[in-house]
Design goal:
Layout: H1 2-5, H2 9-18, H3 24-41, H4 52-63, H5 68-78, H6 88-100, H7 103-114, E1 121-122, H8 124-134, H9 144-159, E2 167-168, H10 169-178
Antiparallel strand pairs: 1-2
Length: 194
């Protein structure tokens, strides 16, 4: 019960030191929100974290994120241990990048979201999958897949600096540094500025 009133000093101090983007009172607020989400999740994690469903609902209500594939990938970037739950450390550290991360941190985060199989590259197939999910396809479009394939080829032409047919992090980083709008080239995975 004491934890729900005021987060533990050690945890707050530790997270404030490790996560440079939030001050002590912000970390306290994020821990309180985490506790609320854990209470809402009603899972077997017994206070150790909350699951994918609560995470998705939270990102939807807080940031308007709706794309299922993107939400699952964002969950995976937060859940670095692949445990199926978000711990308080995952929560605070993940939000630090999502909300206040440097360009470098956001590039690494977005790249990880788009690298669906975690092999260190964004392939044509992964670009296609992400774009197919994030674009609004009009019913009148005869061949929506063809249009998406064309977009993939345009993205590769613009971003694939070593011309190997896939994007390494180096390719992605160079493209984003040249044109910051390419940060979310394959789908909205960051909250709006507001």
């Amino acid at each position: 019960a004491a934890m729900s009133r005021k987060p533990g000093t050690f945890l707050v101090d530790s997270l404030t030191r490790s996560v440079k983007h939030f001050n002590k009172s912000e970390v306290e607020c994020l821990i309180k929100l985490f506790d609320t989400l854990v209470a809402r999740s009603k899972t077997h994690f017994a206070g150790a974290g909350f699951d994918r469903l609560v995470f998705r609902d939270t990102l939807y209500s807080a940031f308007g994120m709706t794309d299922d594939v993107v939400l699952d990938r964002v969950f995976s970037t937060f859940d670095r241990r692949n445990s199926g739950r978000i711990t308080v450390v995952d929560w605070v550290e993940g939000l630090a990048v999502l909300l206040r991360g440097t360009l470098e941190e956001k590039m690494k985060y977005c790249f990880k979201v788009y690298d669906l199989n975690g092999d260190g590259y964004i392939s044509r197939e992964e670009m296609f999958q992400m774009l197919k999910n994030s674009l609004l396809i009009q019913p009148a479009d005869e061949e929506p897949d063809e249009g998406i394939k064309d977009l993939v080829e345009i993205a590769l032409k613009k971003m694939d600096h070593d011309h190997d047919g896939k994007l390494s992090f180096e390719d992605f980083e160079k493209a984003v540094r040249d044109e910051s709008l390419l940060l979310e080239a394959f789908g909205p995975c960051l909250p709006d500025i507001k």
